[in-house]
Amino acid sequence: METPPNKATVVEINLISAQELPSYKASSSTSSIRTYVVAWISPQQKLTSRVDKAGDKNPTWNDKFIISIDKDLVFERPNSTLVLEIYCKRRYRKDRLIGKVNILLDSLIDKNQFWGSEDICGKVMAFHVRDSSGMPQGILNIGVMNLDGLLDRGMPSFLGNSSLAIDYRRLLGGN
């Protein structure tokens, strides 16, 4: 990898769905599990998806986040990752971590791995969700769009020049 320019790359992450997650519910319970995703590069800037209330072991979120990735971070620390943690929402106790996915930031910004035009390009990716012991606990499906071509005229001031994360609901004034 050659030395990158001192610039941030902007990507849109679409949390599409998950498949075959473990249920973690009591056998007598008839309610379905409710899941959500926590995404972060820096633990100080975590984003949370909507809670899927109907999908049970196969949730669909279709939630989008905009993430600005500092290319210097990827160059200096090539093992830097985007962490996606899937939680089971519980009513009276702390939410349970079902599993997590670690995605190398380099794979999110490498345009050689995308389809599309020079201006805007994207890809769909699937990852094994792993529990704390490293065992697979289902599959997480995401879409990634590299938005650099749309932002060639300059980085929007709300993104800055560092690793920053924004979810669409906050950006549009929703909850």
Describe this structure in words.
It is a single chain. The chain is mostly beta strands and 175 residues long. Helices cover 9% and strands 44% of the residues. It contains three helices and ten strands; from the N terminus they run E-E-E-E-H-E-E-H-E-E-E-E-H. A six-stranded antiparallel β-sheet has the order 7-8-9-1-4-10. Strand 8 (121-130) and strand 9 form a beta hairpin. The protein is globular. The termini are far apart.
Name a few traits of the molecule.
3 helices, mainly beta
Helix content: under 10%
Which structural class is indicated by helix and strand composition?
A: mainly beta
Gyration radius (Cα, Å) is 17 Å
Number of helices: 3
Mean pLDDT: 80
Low-confidence stretches: none
Strand order of the largest sheet: 7-8-9-1-4-10
Based on CA inertia axes, which overall geometry fits?
globular
Strand content: 35-45%
N-to-C order of helices and strands: EEEEHEEHEEEEH
Span between N and C termini? 40 Å
Write down how many β-strands occur, each being a DSSP E stretch of 2 or more residues. 10
Major pleated sheet: 6 strands, antiparallel
